[in-house]
Amino acid sequence: MRFNDAILGVVLLIFGAAVVLHSRGFPGLPGQNYGPAFFPSIIGVALGLCGVILVVQGILTRREVGLVTLGEWASSPRHRGNFFIVILALLFYVLFSKPLGFIPTSLLITTVLMVRFGVRLLPAGLMAVASTLVIHTAFYKFLLVPLPWGILTQVAW
Amino acid sequence: MDAVATAFGLVFDPYVLAVIVFSALFGLFVGSIPGLTATMATALLVPVTFFMEPVPALAAIVTAVAMAIFAGDIPGALLRIPGTPASAAYVDEAYAMTRKGLAERALGTGLVCSALGGFFGTVVLVTSAPTLAEFALNFSSFEYFWLACLGLTCAAIISTESPIRGLVSLLIGLFIATIGIGIVSGHPRFTFGSIELLGGVSFIPAMIGMFAVSEVLRYTTTTVHLPDVSQTPIGNLFKGLWPILRRYKVNLLRGSIIGTAIGALPGAGADIAAWISFAVSKKFSREPEKYGTGHVEGLVDASAANNAGLSGAWVPAIVFGIPGDSITAIVIGVLYMKGMNPGPMVFINSPELIYAVFLTFFVANIALIPLGFLAIRSARQVLRISRNALMPIILMFCVVGSFAINNTVFGVTVMLVLGVLAYVMEENHFPVAPAILGIVLGPMLEDNFLTSMIKSDGRIVDFFERPIAGVLGVVTILVWLIPLVLTIRRRLKAA
Fold it and tell me: DSSP code of B145?
């Protein structure tokens, strides 16, 4: 999804202004002119200036570049779906990996994504089981990362 | 000399050697799969190296990257799709050779020149780094401020098509670096009450998001399909190679020199090195008309250059702590996590570590020949692996890697947010590398800047008073002004 530079410029301008305004609330260092707000304020101002330049560029080229140019994928429902399903899968992990446990969550996510991308169900399931077990063993057993067991706590190995 | 002996002991340890072999295979695999870059190989490897001692951790990264950069040539020659961006410069040439039935010559030349170029870059690294480090011992916060500025400016301006977009990317990275407890003041900034953000945006989840998750997102939304692997058999790789090397020895040397120099330039890495040396090769060739028709000459230059660039990028990274490209930016992040602050002091405090890194570079470039040979042999099987099945597995690996650093799902959230950010940025032609450099160098830049400001009581003149700081400052400002002057000149000419 491509936006016209003017839109991006406005977003950056607002963001830069917000950074500067928010930084003004930081307490200064006693006896110093340069405190925690100094550096973020410079970044905010610079982002705002870049925003202005992009707005000008965007207005100059508005004939050639539309306000929003959708990529080829956006007109294909399948690819559009792919994009959101990956994001949903990651959100699902963030929300449910603890109660469900790593193994069930990972099995579900990998199988669903593989099937969605066009792998047949049986091979997808098998590969999901294999990859989940390999990742789990590598990180849980060897690197001692406390991946959650969730509903499998009773049978944890 | 003691340090060198210790370094030998550190590297030629069964565990470290096993790590090297494993990361070599991993690098070759990732590099040969189109769409998975050498940077992604590093990003995926870092969470694992997090649990290792510094020497195996660095050895893993050095080896995997060297292998991945070469392996990018394989799908380039066989499918006309570069495995990594560093192979893009000569992918048409290599594919043209394959169509003429010379696939083995294209790949064999690529392999041997990669190893030789990498070797050359390493020699330069080994000889120049200690001398530079001695010089850098006299640097104060002013010099470091300007060095960081110069590195970041080069990354944002020189290596991107649009300086303004590079600058925005850099500023986003610098902003992300300010999140958390302020280094100078101890006041929480931009945390909005979140306890998890107090420690700042963790570097590993950020990097995995920007370099791996964004790639997965791009893959899932790509409407283009991979062509089938051409069925031409691959013959003896090393047949007829010697005459090529002898005939183009100047090209080999030139590619290596250009590659090392560009790699050492902050912000420009192996891919730019390959483009430039390919162009130089064509310009100075006695038969430029043959380029594009499957002529081996340009491959010699460019394959040597991209591998030489890898070693070159380590020079500013180890000596000053200023990364030469996004891979060394990641390495610097790893060094900080291991409690080793890159910079000249490393040469004094732990020289054996530096020598161990040098040694690994040599080992990796020597191992490249046999392992690369195997990779080419098994290329057809690797290219047949379904990327539809691979991408979900990579995604799970990213998730676990981001989780493993602090053992909270907050890392996964950071990875997701920055992954989407990087994807949107790239869709809108904003380069991502400056942002990661900003995240890594942000704290150091702010620290040196504030220290210098407080020392000089806000007088800008002091930033130029010390001779080296003055030169660096003037160079940095020139780099800022050049694009401006060029734009104005272009406007004037057009008018």
Answer: H
Whole-number Å distance between alpha carbons of B215 and B217: 5
Nearest chain B residue to A5 by CA: give it.
Answer: B428
- The runs of H, that is alpha helices, within B385-428 are 387-406, 410-427
CB contact under 8 A, A46 and B187: no
CA distance B328 to B315: 10
- pLDDT, residue B349, reads 83
**pLDDT tens profile B310-341:** 888 888 888 888 887 788 888 888 888 887 77
Give the tokens for residue B359: 């040694």
From the candidates B50, B53, B189, which should be mutated to test the interface with A, based on the most A CB atoms within 10 A? B189
Give yes or no for a contact between B311 and B124, defined as CB atoms under 8 angstroms apart.
yes
A38 touches chain B (CB under 8 A): yes
Query: How high is the pLDDT of residue B174?
Result: 93
Label residue B53 left, alpha or beta by phi (over 0 means left) and psi (-120 to 50 means alpha).
beta
Closest CA to B469 of B150, B170, B130, B134: B150
Read off the DSSP letter of residue A68: E
Which class for A1: exposed (0-12), middle (13-18), buried (19 or more C-beta within 10 A)? middle
Classify residue A32 as exposed, middle or buried by CB count within 10 Å of its CB (0-12, 13-18, 19+): middle
Q: What is the pLDDT of residues B231-249, one digit of tens each?
A: 666 777 777 788 888 889 8
Q: Model-level pTM?
A: 0.86
The phi-psi region of residue B101 (left if phi > 0; otherwise alpha if psi is between -120 and 50; otherwise beta) is: left
State residue B223's pLDDT score: 66
CB contact under 8 A, A90 and B184: no
Option in A87, A114, A124 nearest B416 (CB): A87
Tell me the C-alpha distance between B11 and B16, whole Å: 6
Contact pairs from chain A to chain B, CB under 8 Å: 159
- State the Cα angle at B269 between B266 and B274, rounded to 5°: 140
From CA B139, how far away is CA A31, in angstroms rounded?
A: 27
Which of A67, A90, A119, A137 would best serve as a mutation to test chain B binding (most B beta carbons within 10 A)?
A90
Contacts of B441 in chain A (CB under 8 A): none
Instruction: For residue A102, give the amino acid letter.
Output: F
Shortest CA distance to B218 belongs to which of B339, B37, B43, B14? B37
Q: Which of B407, B451, B425 is nearest to B145 (CA)?
A: B451
Nearest Cα to Cα of residue B255 among B318, B302, B205, B319? B302
- B222 token code pair: 């790509």
* C-alpha pair distances (Å), A105 with each of A83, B104, B394, B398, B434: 19, 45, 15, 14, 34
Structure tokens at B232: 């031409």
